[in-house]
Amino acid sequence: MSVCRYPFTENKKMKNRALIVSVGKFNPGVDLSRRIGVKTDSQRLHKILAKLGFSVNIKFDIEADEIYEAFKAESEKTVKDCFVGIISTHGEEGVVFGADGRPVKLAEIYSYFGGPSMEDKSKLFLIQACRGHGLDGGVEVETDSSSSEEEDSMSELFSIPIDTAVMYATTPGYAAFNHPLGSVLIQTLCDLLEKEGSSDLEITKLLTRLNYQVAYNFQPRGKEYSGKKQMPCFVTRFTREVFPFSKTAADLSLTFAATQLVDEPRRLRKSSIS
């Protein structure tokens, strides 16, 4: 198996890029609840990714067509070695929702990145959104699905380009938890990237650790959610080992000044549904 340890491009001025789309407030008349903690997630991600050498763009509370346009535009540029796309909003299996309440098909978003601009570049997507309304009780259950749901799921998987991984906050059919201090998936990822040595892990090892931390260490509070769990999952189509967050790829002298954010006090988290 080939190994890709950044940096490997000749253009030293080109940077890795990240696009964060966070929808917390929905348009008047849209029957979707306000999502708490999204700005906390986005600010912390921005700070950490910038220190790791990424040029980070954040878009808050944009509508479905604007989400498509934002990712389409990113897919038509090139990057030094890696692109990271993060979507945080309400969702169901195969779709996420814009501020206007309209669905955005994840399969279409992924398909943008199969073109020549992103050829041989590593792509990582994190989807912080529900994939259904079920609450995971921590045991394996069998569920029936219609043929159309199975077809939609397969279509989404087939749309993921080569050299791409997608990290989902939860498994198909289940809800993802959110809270005022940020989502468990994104905050745990940030914890890992700040932990000594974790940012230098090969991507599948890093995502596996993220799975473990959320599945075994997270416990939502409140009577309604007592005993419930959240099990993230990821899909990978990488054809080589990659190290997208390795500190050796970051020009710290240039990226440290890119972010001026104030750390908020860390408090106990009260969970809700994303």
How would you summarize this macromolecular structure in one to three sentences?
The chain is an alpha/beta fold.
Would you mind describing this structure in some detail?
This protein is an alpha/beta fold. The protein contains seven helices and 13 strands. It has helices at 38-51, 64-75, 106-111, 147-158, 184-194, 203-217, 252-255, and strands spanning 3-4, 16-22, 54-60, 82-88, 91-92, 95-97, 103-105, 122-128, 164-168, 177-178, 233-236, 241-242, 272-273. It has a six-stranded mixed β-sheet with strand order 3-2-4-8-9-11, sandwiched between helices. Strands 5-6-7 form a three-stranded antiparallel β-sheet. The longest helix is centred in the C-terminal third of the chain and has 15 residues, at 203-217.
Average pLDDT number: 80
Alpha-carbon distance between the termini? 38 Å
Strand order in space, largest sheet: 3-2-4-8-9-11
Structural class: alpha/beta
| Radius of gyration from CA coordinates | 18 Å
Quaternary structure type: single chain
Report helical residue fraction.
Answer: 25-40%
Low-pLDDT runs: 5-10, 134-151, 249-271
Give a quick account of the main beta sheet: strands, pairing sense, barrel closure: 6 strands, mixed
Number of strands: 13
Return the string of H and E elements. EEHEHEEEEHEHEEHHEEHE
What percent of residues are in strands? Answer: 15-25%
Total helix count? 7
